[in-house]
Specification:
- This protein is of the alpha/beta class and 175 residues long.
- It folds into two domains: 3-120, HUPs (Rossmann fold); 128-174, no CATH class.
- The chain has seven helices and five strands, in the order βαβαβαβαβααα.
- It has a five-stranded parallel sheet, with helices on both faces.
- Helix 5 (128-136) runs antiparallel to helix 7.
- Bound molecules: adenosine-5'-triphosphate and magnesium ion.
């Protein structure tokens, strides 16, 4: 059985992430869609909330399993017996970062390869940070996320009250 992991912070998931999870699941026997438990950036949704969004999105993706992990991504990949780490590529900016990460990961775990899937053009601009900024400014996010994410995002932003600008800006500055 060929297993791959699809790691990220997914704070929260958006349609670009779901598209990559769906396409990657067609390439492997099992895809483990995994959220970093504590990303090195300010997050809006805790681990369980992020996982719940991913579980809902994975309902109609039979080969996708959702979980969180702690520590080095390659070590997690090795633990679960994965042969590949799946990443989504947007514009050229992603390439440089992913290339560097892939080389470091390869050095740490030579038996595991990074597989990058190009995003669909309709999602080329989309990131969780941008999504949060648009939501914060009361923009229309209905094309970017499933309805269950959109409604929770609105509630969370309303809960942030006065601090909300700082919180969301922090997220986008830290990439
Ligand atoms: N629009 C998109 N299309 C395809 N892949 C994407 C898209 N957005 C993110 N990804 C990929 O999903 C994985 C997880 O990324 P991550 O959790 O950082 O999401 P993000 O949208 O980039 O959020 P943030 O703005 O917080 O960095 C990465 O491989 C990333 O390149
Ligand atoms: Mg990112």
């Amino acid at each position: 059985m060929t297993i791959a992991i699809y790691p990220g912070s997914f704070d929260p998931i958006h349609n670009g992430h779901i598209e990559i999870a769906r396409r990657a699941s067609l390439l492997f026997d099992k895809l483990i869609w995994a959220a970093y438990d504590r990303p090195l950036k300010s997050i809006l949704f805790n681990e369980e909330e992020r996982l719940e969004f991913m579980r809902q999105a994975a309902r109609d993706l039979p080969k996708v399993e959702v979980c969180s992990y702690h520590g080095l991504t390659v070590l997690f990949a090795r633990q679960v017996g994965a042969k590949a780490i799946v990443r989504g590529l947007r514009a050229t900016h992603d390439f440089e970062i992913e290339y560097q990460m892939a080389l470091i990961n390869k050095q740490q775990a030579p038996e595991i390869d990074t597989v990058c899937l190009m995003t669909g053009t309709q999602y080329a601009f989309l990131s969780s940070s941008i999504l949060k900024e648009v939501a914060l400014a009361n923009g229309d996010i209905s094309e970017m996320v499933p309805p269950y994410v959109a409604s929770k995002l609105k509630v969370r932003i309303a809960q942030l009250g006065e601090d909300r600008g700082d919180k969301v800006k922090l997220v986008s500055l830290q990439e």
